[in-house]
Protein: Cob(I)alamin adenosyltransferase
Organism: Rubidibacter lacunae KORDI 51-2
Amino acid sequence: MRSRLPVTDANLTAEQYKQKMQRRKAIQDQRLAERSLEKGLLVVHTGNGKGKTTAALGMVLRSLGHGYRVAIVQFIKGAWEPAEKAALERWGEQLTFQAMGEGFTWETQDRERDIATARAAWEQALVFVRDPIYRLVLLDEANVALKLGFLDVDTVLQGLLAKPDDSHVILTGRGAPPKLIAAADLVTEMTLVKHPFREQGVKAQPGIEF
Amino acid sequence: MRSRLPVTDANLTAEQYKQKMQRRKAIQDQRLAERSLEKGLLVVHTGNGKGKTTAALGMVLRSLGHGYRVAIVQFIKGAWEPAEKAALERWGEQLTFQAMGEGFTWETQDRERDIATARAAWEQALVFVRDPIYRLVLLDEANVALKLGFLDVDTVLQGLLAKPDDSHVILTGRGAPPKLIAAADLVTEMTLVKHPFREQGVKAQPGIEF
């Protein structure tokens, strides 16, 4: 791998550095001036790397800090992880949580039940998405339900049109379908570079995975 | 784009689906059995996409939910965002926060001052990293300080060796140097797929960017 150190920067005189940063600031100020629109976003976190749900939880935390009401629906996991529950319960009614899954698909081994559960989760999600009281709705692992065909992507996109203009919806999980990516405003792919499960036999640990 | 829907799965009979998931569960159980090691991790979140800091905040939230002490040092931003502050202050002394930066580099326009600030932040970070009371230490935007040459990567890697075996350290920010990636246990690259700043002129919004 090549070093990514900006060697040119390190060779600048203090005055050259100052001038470079002044130009950078002018560009930055112009960009900020151009970006004036506020818009409730359709956000997608996908990819095989870690951080899809955790980044959504970070946004939940920020929204709670702003005093906004937040709703979370879990599509695949069967229950709220105890540490997340302990942490987020501090906000009481400001945060609504629904775990609709019954564990991973290889636990239930029953596709009809998985489909019924995913559809019930989506019906609950729609209630939150439509309700202007929620400024952020997190549909955790919803992409997996779409990928597995438990939910129809056109039905979901149609439902998301009912989102109020100033509220945000986040869908997380691997394998977000192309139609969802096309419709979304903000899409990040979490790419696996290194993972200690695979490479070092390290197990899931508190604070990291749950 | 091709559809990523697993068409084969949708065509399976209920019994075939069950058998497939039974095989999947057997593999999953074996993997879990093989992964028995617990290890404090060196975690890196890098890339040009969103979610590097937010995913770290999600891990902070989980750690707090487990009752662990957490320390955060911000290397580039000058102050704690008010919403994050409001949210995380609920944990009182369980969370220690130090904002060491003085804003973005294009705000200070003074490299010597930026270098001095980054080094002071690193000295503070080292105190937290060495202290076994902290189970998680987040060095927010530290990668940027490394990338800009404000901190020396060998010095930082040497310092991180003092981390207790069961505590985790996360470094976030664009441009993580290859030596850091090589030394890390868990590396995720947040890849920008779509961003409404660039594409729609949408500005930074509460709950999303801060």
Chain B touches chain A through 100 residues (CB under 8 Å). The CA atoms of residues 39 and 126 of chain B lie 19 Å apart. Chain B has a mean pLDDT of 88. The first strand of chain B starts at residue 42 and ends at 46.
